[in-house]
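[Amino acid chain]
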Amino acid sequence: MPSSTEPTRIEPWLSAEAADQTDRQVSQLISLGGVALILGQAGMILSGIGLFPPWWELPALLLLTQILAFAAFGWALPMRWLRAGWTLAPIVNAVLLLSAYGAYRGPLPVTSEPWLWAFEAAIVSYLVLTIPPRWAVAGTVASALLPLVSALAFLGEVPHVVLTQTPIHGANMIYIALFSGIRTRLNRLREAEARALAAEAQQVRAQVTAHDKEQLARLIHDEVLSVLVSATNFRGAPPAALRTDAFRALALFDRPTLQQDSGSLATGVAADRLMSALRQVDAGIAIDSDAGDGEVPCAVVEAIAAAAAEALRNSVRHAGAAERHVTLSVFPRAVEATVHDQGPGFDIGQVADHHLGIRCSVQQRMRTLPGGDAAVDSAPGAGTKVRLTWHA
């Protein structure tokens, strides 16, 4: 089984940073439990200090200090320090417990256990952060037996206090199961979060791709196809207006992509932008314009300019020389553009949903704009009115 120090091999969706965060949290939880043990056994620890030589007690005090430091500062300590502590603490603990009664300098017969044993449960619990759970359980059981082995080796007998405490320390495997479960659960939660974020990112990418395709389809329909359709009506040299439209359509493919969803325009500038877009389609169109004081989002101006230009283009294409005019109303919280002609009209119900002109370039473009809408009023013999609106 792979080591717990290689989380990305175990959980493909769990990043190394997320796995480290889990281990940091579990480490601090183990250390806080160790602090509780130290406080609860403070009397026994203090009474036991001095029964062992400095070479034994100094490492034991360092282990005690590590638990306190990991509990207080584990959230900020570098991971390499934490990993070093998780690895070295159980090893030092095992060495000290195995040598405990060889180093013992207290009165005989022995009536006390090694004071390091008071918080041994926390030290062996660090094993869940460095080795697989089954080996951590084995290490915990082995650690519980070390004072007994030390007593037999150095004293030739096992003190009663060691006999009674050994089964209790063997039960520390419960903590291994507990902290292993917590660690696994936290990693699964983080993995699920990573999966959800990845799925959301994929959805956003799909939406952006679909939006880009839709924008390209509108561009080709609104600018390129209209030029091609107009060109089919001429033989010989094309007129200047058609050449101008063709050059403008080609220039659109060289124009850099603009971020149209940010920023705003003064209402007067926005009105000029709308009129400019309309007059590129029909230079002689009659336009009545009204503008208030303030600003309008760029995205609103761009959407209405494109939709109004397409509505006017349809009018020129289908209504021919019929009388037509446009009204514009540009205010900070409301923009309206109406394209009206006296042409032959048409039955809006007969326009297919996939039709790029009315359905996509006009109605869908406006309805995907937050606060936008488009209404088409037409009937055979009654002309056509296209009303584009936006309200903040």
Remarks:
- The chain has 14 helices and seven strands.
